[in-house]
Amino acid sequence: MNPAEKASASAAFKAPVPLKRDHALLDPRELSEMAEQAARDLMAEGESSNTRLAYRAAMRYWAAWFGARYGRQMALPVAVPVVVQFIVDHAQRSTKAGLEHQLPPEIDQALVEAGFKGKLGAPALNTLVHRVSVLSMAHHVSKQPNPCVDPAVKALLSKTRKAYAKRNALPHKQRALTKEPLEAVLETCDDSLKGKRDRALLLFAWASGGRRRSEVSEAVFENLHRGDEGAWLYTLASSKTNPNGKIRPEDVKPVVGSAAVALEAWLQASGITSGPLFRRILKNGTLGTEGLSGTAVRDIVKGRCAAAGVGEDFSAHSLRSGFVTEAGRQNMPLQETMAMTGHRSVETIGGYFRAGAAQVSAVARMMDSTVGESQKSRR
């Protein structure tokens, strides 16, 4: 460092010139109440609406269960035995009488009647694990001792997963909406404003890489640009794999072919030139100004699937899993598929992709004489 640089550096650490102030000085060792609230607001704004709703629902359930079990209001930090009790109350275990869980029937009934549970009985393992994870996050954010990272809790959850696996109680996955059932679903979309919206929404979500429902509900016109030969390009400004909103080349998703035609028809019919891309349609048939919620996107998928008669076990995620499964069925390159979906882990996408590829696998059909002869002719 030369003399000039040394002088500049030392000057930077000289006592600042006193400023005129009429506010209280802060303590550098701790955040002010206002700063803590601002930080919470920023964290909440940075989360997707679906995540916020899921977290709130989980914490409401924790509070209701705790009140019913212990007769008092829940407060953080929660003791380790409480988390262990929660797990055994909701996880099924094998007994001589069959599968059982510890939640008393009267409490189970009360939770259902109050709207905290959808139905009686033990929840899915994924639901149980998610609720424990939410409680863990609540302790982390509030800087309280976290009972969910206690060795006893971690060991119990690990063994519970293994117990479910040994019983072949596999996690429930939403059915994949592949090309054939999707075509049937699209047939239910007429030329009304709602029909054009739903057709454009379904094709946009599916054909642009299997977009998540939050990505569909948060899509805005400003991120949509014209491509070549009637195509559209949509820039995914924020997603689960890009929470910081950095604009990267791989976040530009093509909307082409029938998806582009449907999107064009929707834009012309709706007259949308700014703001939310997919919006509510009011009871009088006119277009609203608010964008659809993630729940509304899910309901559109489920409602259209039911109307098409393809089944009721579909959800918004079925568009994403359907895109990947169809890519596997059509022997599309895995890397290109991942570029469209935004998956970074082969392990995450691989299950659906391999399931699709397995259905057209020549190896799996070696007992089929037609396949066998076709393989011989290639040699």
Which descriptors apply to this entry?
single chain; 379 residues; mainly alpha; DNA polymerase, domain 1; hpI Integrase, Chain A; 2 domains; three-stranded antiparallel sheet; 16 helices; 53% helix
What is the topological layout?
Layout: H1 3-12, H2 33-46, H3 49-70, H4 80-90, E1 93-95, E2 98-100, H5 105-113, H6 125-141, H7 151-166, H8 179-186, H9 193-207, H10 213-217, E3 224-226, E4 232-235, E5 252-255, H11 257-270, E6 279-281, E7 287-291, H12 294-308, H13 317-329, H14 334-341, H15 346-358, H16 369-377
Antiparallel strand pairs: 1-2, 3-4, 4-5, 6-7
Helix pairs in contact: 3-6, 4-7, 8-12, 9-11, 9-13, 13-15
Question: Could you explain the architecture of this structure?
Answer:
With 379 residues, the protein is mostly helical. It folds into 2 domains: 33-166, Orthogonal Bundle (DNA polymerase, domain 1); 179-314, Intergrase catalytic core (hpI Integrase, Chain A), CATH 1.10.443. It has 16 helices and 7 strands. The chain has helices spanning 3-12, 33-46, 49-70, 80-90, 105-113, 125-141, 151-166, 179-186, 193-207, 213-217, 257-270, 294-308, 317-329, 334-341, 346-358, 369-377; strands at residues 93-95, 98-100, 224-226, 232-235, 252-255, 279-281, 287-291. It has a 3-stranded antiparallel sheet with strand order 3-4-5. A two-stranded antiparallel ribbon has the order 1-2. A hairpin with a 2-residue loop joins strand 1 (93-95) and strand 2 (98-100). Helix 9 packs antiparallel against helix 11 (257-270) and helix 13 (317-329) packs across helix 15 (346-358). The radius of gyration is 27 Å and the shape is globular.
